């Protein structure tokens, strides 16, 4: 399911996957909002397409608002 949300007063598109074990944010949004990225070392995430995407780190304390909540 896709919904619109906000992070730091910026509208973002949110993909809700009830079967996912983690949450992800695009590197472009992290860069544009000047969010702090904590280095976690290299790690890969296997997508549903079986392609492995490499993670850059963790953004802690991100507040995501969906429909004003």
**Residues in helices, as a percent range:** 10-25%
Tell me the number of structural domains. Answer: 1
Number of strands: 5
Q: Report the total helices.
A: 1
Largest sheet: number of strands, sense, barrel closure: 3 strands, antiparallel
Keywords, separated by commas or semicolons:
1 helix; three-stranded antiparallel sheet; two-stranded antiparallel ribbon; 5 strands; 69 residues; mainly beta
Topology:
Blueprint: E1 2-7, E2 10-15, H1 27-33, E3 43-46, E4 52-55, E5 64-66
Antiparallel strand pairs: 1-2, 1-5, 3-4
Q: What does this 3D model show about the protein?
A:
- With 69 residues, the protein is mainly beta.
- The mean pLDDT is 92.
- A hairpin with a 5-residue loop joins strand 3 and strand 4 (52-55).
- The protein has one domain (2-66).
- It has one helix and five strands; from the N terminus they run E-E-H-E-E-E.
Write a short abstract of this structure:
This protein has 69 residues and is mainly beta.
């Amino acid at each position: 399911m896709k919904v619109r949300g906000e992070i730091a007063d910026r509208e973002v598109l949110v993909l809700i996957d009830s079967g996912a074990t983690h949450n992800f944010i695009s590197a472009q949004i992290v860069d544009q909002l000047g969010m702090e990225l904590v280095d976690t070392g290299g790690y890969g995430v296997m997508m549903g397409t079986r392609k492995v995407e490499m993670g850059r780190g963790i953004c802690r304390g991100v507040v995501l608002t969906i429909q004003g909540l």
